[in-house]
Amino acid sequence: MSEGYKVIYDPVHGSVLVDEPFLSILDRHEMQRLRAVKQLGLGYMVFPGANHSRFEHSLGTYHLAGRMADSIGLSEDDASAVRMAGLMHDICHTPFSHTTEEIVENATGMDHMEAAKKLIKGEIRTNQERDDDLFAGMPPISEMIEEHGISSDEVCSLIMHPESVDGLDAFSQGKKAAHFSSKDFIHQIIHGPIDADQIDYLVRDAHYTGVIHGKVDIDRLIGTMRVYNDRIVIEKGGTAAAEGLMVARSLMYSSVYFHRAVRIVKMMLMKSIEASSIDVSGIYLWNDEELMGNLIQEGGTPSRIARSVRNRILYKNVATVFSEDASEELLEHLSEFTGYRKRKQLEADIAERAGIDVSDVIVDIPPRSILLSNQSIGKTDVSILDPEGKVKALTRLSPLAKSLQSRDTFGWSLLIASPEEHKDAVLKASKKLLNL
């Protein structure tokens, strides 16, 4: 540990030690912006306590990445790289987190991880023009961490999703990630079946929402982590803890992340942005209030919807097709409208038939893979190592895990919403266009 360090108290993990160079990076303006970016976006409209930030989550991910590195015996260099990746993995998350992500990706073709890579390297602006007087001449983050012997290339690679063959079958056959030809287990600390990112957001989001489903036995999970054939596995003694993680993930997605009111208010904000003249390519430098303030200042439809969101005047549910009620024929038909652009076109078609503005129609459909195959949210191929040195998928050992893997985390296949005064017209138009 370096001489310069601080102990930061975190309500989830307790005392978190931050030493150099992580402390200097934590104090950079790019990281400080995350204090004003809510972890659950507009989730606080449904769960009043959910006012925690991406800054807290980044600190927690850094902490857990360090604990995992120690547990599996990483070298000091590798441990430093993975801790730095944990700290900065969300450095370019846009305002209200995942709420605005889809719009930005559609407009720029770049997700927040690709943006993070460019920001760390100094290839894109790191601050708004108004703050040039504060940050002029500041070196890019890559230079700072390179001075401490940490490879910025490795950190950026760890932040990016691996271009690898998924699943235990590939693991059993000895195949390795195309992006990480060796030491793939290091990458799994950030993106893996049991990684620092998801463990922190599950327990943190559960803590702040008050939802009891996110309890995870962190100590047992990390304590039973091992490396086997270039992959992170869990010893058999940690099986129950791994099952608990899967339970927490499944229930948090259905009860919090895919809560219908949360989805409606999220898409209302998207409607406000889509109706505005804002150049979304630069909002990775904004915080939540800056985005909301600019939308309100714009006037017209963007302002009306943004002010409705702020005052919790939400669009009303027009129609919900629950998963158990959806026929295969309907699911196949709905799959034609998955993806941002196709869904937006469907909204426009409904609005035209209903004789209203497109900003007054919300359509939400799960991803095609979930819609058609009931595939669970990823990261389910946890590998268990038995005392004889054999590795098996958790889903082969645990009926509970197997059931959770196919559990429908959405609970619904179609959600349509609009302002109260347009409900009848939108319902009529939707029935015609979707053969409901």
From TrEMBL:
Q: Which Gene3D superfamilies match?
A: Hypothetical protein af1432
One of the entry's Gene Ontology molecular-function terms is: dGTPase activity
Which is a Pfam family this sequence falls into? HD_assoc_2
Gene Ontology biological process terms in this record: dGTP catabolic process
Q: Does the keyword Hydrolase apply?
A: yes
Q: SUPFAM superfamilies in the record, alphabetically?
A: HD-domain/PDEase-like (SSF109604)
Query: Keyword annotations for this protein?
Result: Hydrolase
Question: HD domain spans which residues?
Answer: 54-168
Domain of life, per UniProt, equals: Archaea
Q: Does the record's keyword annotation contain Hydrolase?
A: yes
Question: Could you identify this protein by its name?
Answer: Deoxyguanosinetriphosphate triphosphohydrolase-like protein
Q: What is the organism field in this record? A: Candidatus Methanoplasma termitum
